[in-house]
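USER: My hope is that you can spare some time for a protein that puzzles me. I am handing you a single protein, as its sequence and its fold in token form. Walk me, if you will, through where the backbone shape changes along the chain. The protein I mean follows directly.
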Amino acid sequence: MTEEMMDQALEGVDMLHICGIALSTSELSKQNALALAKKAYEKEIAICFDFNFRSSLNDEEGMASLVATYNIILPWVTIAFGSLRDLKELLKIAVESEEAIVESFMLKYNISVFAGTYRHQKNHQKQLQGFIYQGSEKIVSEKEIYEVWDRIGTGDVFVAGTLTGLIEKWSLEKTVKFGVYSAVLAHTTVGDSPVLSKAFVLNYMENQVDVIR
């Protein structure tokens, strides 16, 4: 991307989201993602980053380069999405409890918000649970049962739902709940792009109806 293209892309933008998979798909996509993130940071645009790590795209030799890239981009990031595995296995944060690991990560990189999901299985039922850290506060949603029609893109939908709540300044409880319900419903639709409206998700979240007439 040229400087002009990046300036045009960021014009009027309040937040930039970088999906971590862009750091692994090719050298060009990595350099473009880093350049765009740096430009956004210089313009004081909030940056959101989702680790979205894929082992199939990273061999052992490439892992050191990937971690080095994380260490470039993370200091520019305000909101991060990921898992405990990302922090422990990729960033090698070696402390005991989940809370201590997340606290260490957020302090090291000056992250304001860190969020993600837990997947559970009980009595042959799949359950999804969301978490969000902001400062010293941690909010965990209820476990929601879900059925899988197509799982592709459901993590991205959790991110989009959670960002919606953060941007609209909802409570953390409502924010992570909306992210979870968005992801739960996304398991029932085909494709990796969200097709359900905010109003639809909120209605289902609040009323749990099977049929809307």
Summary: DSSP finds eight helices and seven strands in the chain. Residues 1-111 form a domain with the UDP-N-acetylmuramoyl-L-alanine:D-glutamate ligase fold (CATH 3.40.1190.20).
